[in-house]
Design brief:
Blueprint lengths: L3 E3 L21 E5 L1 H12 L6 E5 L9 H13 L1 H12 L3 H7 L5 H9 L4 H9 L3 E7 L7 H8 L4 E5 L7
Helix pairs in contact: 2-3, 2-5
Amino acid sequence: MKFLYFSGFCLESESELFQEYKIENDFTVSGFSYGAIKAVQYILKNDTRVDKLQLFSPAYFNDKSTKYKRMQLIYFGKDSNTYCDNFLQNCGFSSEAKQKYFSLGTVDELEELLNYEWDESIMQSIVDKGTKIEIYLGSEDKIVNTKKALEFFRNYGEVYYLKEKEHIL
């Protein structure tokens, strides 16, 4: 296996933004936001050796209401480009970074991102496989409630709570 990185919602090739944190080797899997979900799913579906799982600003919406999630999908459906532009701005992307990494997401991807349930038994099964988990959260994140995410993820790995960092860290 080569280094695996999973991109965030409506992004591609943004892994270089995490250069100071990411470990690139044959036994590390990482993902940003929506990509964190995909990284977890990859580990669950494959028997390949993974020593480290790096989750950069995992898309943690367990604390959001069904109404909130439904409204996000409605806004996306009405004008996906404006929705994604606003989303990336709230992530902390500069205009240059938005242009460089933007790739229009789909309603199915957004629905998966919003409705994914981070589950204790899934996280524990990854830990039980011998995989070390690193979670990176920004104190100024406008996308997810980092206090709730911290509360959940601290049971499964090393959490790095980065002061004055946004969703994009």
